[in-house]
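Below is how a single chain appears once it has passed through the pipeline. First comes the sequence as given, then the structure the pipeline wrote out for it. We keep one example in the README because the format questions we get most often are answered faster by looking than by reading.
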Amino acid sequence: MTSPPSRRRQLLVTDAMLVAMALIWAVNYSVLKFATRLVPPLAYNGVRIPAAAFLQFGIARAMRLGPIVRKDAVRLVVLGMLGNGIYQVFFILGQARSRVATTVLMLASGPALAALIGRLRGTERLTSRSWSGIGLQLIGMSCVVLGTAAGGGRDSLLGILLILASAVSWALFSVLVQPLTGHVPGLQVGAYTMLGGGIVSLLVGIPAIAAVSWSTLSPAVYWALAYSTIAAMVIAYLFWYQGVKTFGPTHTSMYSNVQPLLAMPIAWATLGELPSRWQVAGAGFIMSGLILARTAAHEPEGG
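Resulting structure:
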């Protein structure tokens, strides 16, 4: 049995991991934006996602996690084609056409979309507070869309539609994969779903990969690729799994939900992308909705 001091240390270490996870992912938006100005987005994803799958399987093997039931493995790979494949195709193409603030705020509304999908499937019960939180998030998303329309060309309509498609893809994936997370270790869920994503990303990206003169790229591109692969898709995921194991998914999600508050100033400092008033307003609505939705679990059943 773990002693209280040891348990406290474990909690503090895990909290630190989750803070690092949120920061890694927030920085990654600007890294991706920089790199996809120099490398076609589909070529970039076609390299980093298969590489991330390879590394995650390598870690699972080093941790002596054996293969999972074949039926579960097949389901995870197929779901990964949606959650780490189709999602990433929409995401990377949308990110290349949009400001970081637009992308991170649209994706931050993913929990609202997932809740609505779960409600339609009958797997999610929504209280009045949940509905209020979803409403605020959707209002925030609308602010971002309106800001895009008034953004003077800094974002494109195609870009925001692609980001919206990626948010819907991820929300659907998160709902469908949930039943498997109860009996398959988190690292295995990540590895097999990343494999599915790697298959899609590689197949879609082959023409773009072949067209890139990789030997002439600057070292900065390779540093960005290493960061997006190792830090964002391997290390941060491991921190996420540890958080879910220690605190549960709800507590862990609160850390990922602070990404907009970190990603926007980072993009401002590194890319010169000053958030618009519409985006700031959207961030306020979305963050308020996330907080309200996260506290909905404490609402009485009759609420």
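The radius of gyration is 19 Å.

See the next section for the split statistics.
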